[in-house]
Amino acid sequence: MEPAPRPPRRPINPAALLPHLARKKLREPKVLPSGEQNVSISRDDFVPVLQAEVGSDIPVNVYRYKVLIPIAQTIRESALAFRRVTIATREDLDLLTRMLTEHFGGITGTVVDPPTVRGVGARDPKKLAETLEENEHAAFEVYAAPVQESDDYFRALRRELQEALGEGVILIERQVVTLL
Questions:
Q1: Can you give the pTM of this predicted structure?
Q2: Tens digit of pLDDT for each residue in 135-150?
Q3: CATH number, domain at 130?
């Protein structure tokens, strides 16, 4: 059985996420000078609304997003033959690391090189034996503000990655956690 051809891939486009970074908030509280009518605030004093308050002196609820980036897929061609298909490259992972660090102030990821989390599953659950494959993923975790804008950003990221990498599904999960 011939495997289905992979959709074409293109470079990841960070500009697709810029509209989700437009709303800004102060990086930290500012005390206004008494009696002053006008205050100048540097552009560097602002961060995107979706950036979490990591490092707060009080416990703070945040969203933790885990993004699984497929880096390779191993497909069984026959009982003894396998084919490995590269999906995301080292350059893709480096771009995502820089982009998420810039947008959220930092990320957590796997350390091994290449950073891999393995998964096994069927492309078609009704044809388990014929469509069974093994996948390798890089896992990125990002803390974000618990606001709708964060969900909107990660939905847009999922769409961008699916289109750029030619993948049908990119998994992104969200948990509510409290940072102490």
A1: 0.84
A2: 899 999 999 999 999 9
A3: 3.30.70
